[in-house]
Amino acid sequence: MVPGFNHNVMHRGQMFHIQTEDRGLKRPEIITHLFIGGNIIDSRRTSYADIVMAENLDEIVREMMEEQHKNMLRDLKNGRYDDKIARFGGAPAKDATEPAAQAPADEQTGSLDEIILNYLASND
Fold it and tell me: How far apart are CA 48 and CA 77, in angstroms?
């Protein structure tokens, strides 16, 4: 079983939490949740039941988890959830031409890939 990933990210002036976990061999599934203020905005599930006998299962599952986690981050950054966020009481969706809100000084900065790669590297 691969340990999960938890990542806080600023998007349009609000803090979001993304959590990815492996449910283990008894329930071979990777699940990623996107939270705002304790509410789940979206979830993704990926079964790996078809590969549980793979020799390098931990490595494969870790790669699958990283990719699913990064895809959720990318979708958040690209505005895929803006309408849902507004329905949950978050900031309304903004015009794509409007500049993104600045992250506080204590938040990580850089491209989304840099942030997630740094995060993943720090948990090795």
Answer: 27
Q: How many domains does the chain have?
A: 1
Whether 109 is in a domain gets the answer no
Name the phi and psi angles at 68, rounded to 5. Answer: -65, -40
Q: Is residue 118 part of a domain?
A: no
What does the pLDDT look like over 45-54, one tens digit per residue?
Answer: 999 999 999 9
Is the pTM higher than 0.70? yes
pLDDT tens by residue, 59-117:
999 999 999 999 999 999 999 999 888 887 766 555 443 444 444 433 445 555 666 66
Cα separation, 96 vs 12, in Å, equals 11
Q: What angle do CA 112, 101, 10 make, to 5 degrees?
A: 45
Q: Are 18 and 6 in contact (CB under 8 A)?
A: yes
Helix axes 57-77, 112-122, angle to 10 degrees: 150
Domain coverage including residue 58: 5-91
CB 119 within 8 A of CB 7: yes
